[in-house]
Amino acid sequence: MNQNPQNQNITATKAGLWQIFGVFYKIGTFTIGGGYAMIPLIEAELTGRGWIPEEDMPDIVVLAQSAPGVLAVNMAVFAGYRLRGVKGSVAAALGAVLPSFIAILLIAMVFTGFKDNPVVEKIFKGIRPVAVGLIIIPAVNLAKSCRKWWAWLLCAASCAAVALLKFSPIYIIMVVIAVAAGLYFAREARSGR
Amino acid sequence: MIYLQLFGVFFVIGLFTFGGGGAMLSLIQMQVVGRFGWISESQFADIVAISQCTPGPIGINCATYVGYEVGAGAGGHLAGILGSACATFALVLPTFLIFYGIITLYNKYKGTRLFSDIMTGLRPAVAGLIFAAAIILIFKIDFGAGGLNIGILQSTFPHWTSWLILAASLAASFIWKINPILLILAGGLTGLILY
């Protein structure tokens, strides 16, 4: 069974490779302010099409955050792989990256005055607070899965560690994995044999 | 060979950056400004500002721009395009290599108690990390010798109406389930009319 993860993970609605590329191209085009703001766009597009069930999205976010690299590309790779295996992951990543690539090349080569254009400035003054909102949305959705008091405490602690104390997120992820695994094996040892 | 160097630098950055664009920007700065001197300090500040207000992930934008500047500096537009392709491809490649390892582990342990315990712990922790990313975008936080100093970041919240836009976009999303793409377009239009 494990030899064939692709088949195991294909969801009810089958997505074409060009379709996957197109959807992630659209997501990439409308992401402004970085990968975190991309999460609600990915959720809306993928669950809206019935490609990935809504209850699976938190796990995709958590796994993407636990892997190195650009968060948005990680999410695209995870989601693309679930839809169509290795080919799907390549199509999704290309789609997510290409709008960036084209926009930056145009700005570097043609619209060199882009940053100082007053109209652009006005538009971005309006978009930036929306981008912050788009980051808060997935955080709230993930926090909704907190059922126990310790989960709330952990959420607050990891937020404070990064925002106030400037810890790198990877340390928090590693500590949480180590503690969860330690508790699991301790419980096994106590109940086991 | 400049392209190989670009590839090497961005491959290592992609491999060792966890947790999104912010951490990546400082690593890129250390390498391309500090170590290799390809880009000047003020040029890098411009690149970061543009990366934040163009479509796409900030890390990808920054890598593409740096790659272009480095290539174009060596030999015109075409060399610039090649440089940006090198840098971007190198940045994304480690994700793929590591991802297939992670997905194998995921498929192997998905149903087990150990995996679900770890995920139960990671969900609130990652929620906290994402909240922190939003907070860092809103507030300027200094935790130095003078104790804790918190101010509002003028670049994201230049005006009190910025808060209204944030509140409206949260309400539109949570209450009316408005599509995020529409929110972005509405935000841009509001900015154009309001400021």
Rounded to the nearest angstrom, the distance between the terminal CA atoms of chain B is 47 Å
How would you spell out the order of helices and strands of chain B? HHHHHEEHH
| Count of DSSP-assigned helices of chain B | 7
Which structural class fits the helix and strand makeup of chain B? Answer: mainly alpha
* Largest sheet, spatial ordering of strands of chain B: 1-2
Number of strands of chain A: 0
Instruction: Give Rg of chain A in angstroms.
Output: 20 Å
**In percent, how much strand structure appears in the residues of chain A?**
under 5%
Broad structural category of chain A? mainly alpha
The topology string of helices and strands of chain A comes to HHHHHHHH
Largest beta-sheet details of chain B: 2 strands, antiparallel
Query: Could you tell me the mean pLDDT of chain B?
Result: 85
Description:
The complex is a heterodimer of chains A (about 190) and B (about 200). With about 190 residues, chain A is mainly alpha-helical. Chain A has eight helices and no strands. The longest helix of chain A is centred in the middle third of the chain and has 39 residues, at about 70-110. The two termini of chain A are about 30 Å apart. The model of chain A is unreliable at about 1-10 (pLDDT under 50). With about 200 residues, chain B is mostly helical. Chain B folds into two domains: about 1-110, no CATH class; about 160-195, no CATH class. Chain B has helices at about 1-15, 20-35, 40-50, 60-110, 115-140, 160-175, 180-195; strands at about 140-145, 145-150. Chain B has a two-stranded antiparallel sheet with strand order 1-2. In chain B, strand 1 and strand 2 (about 145-150) form a beta hairpin. The longest helix of chain B is centred in the middle third of the chain and has 52 residues, at about 60-110.
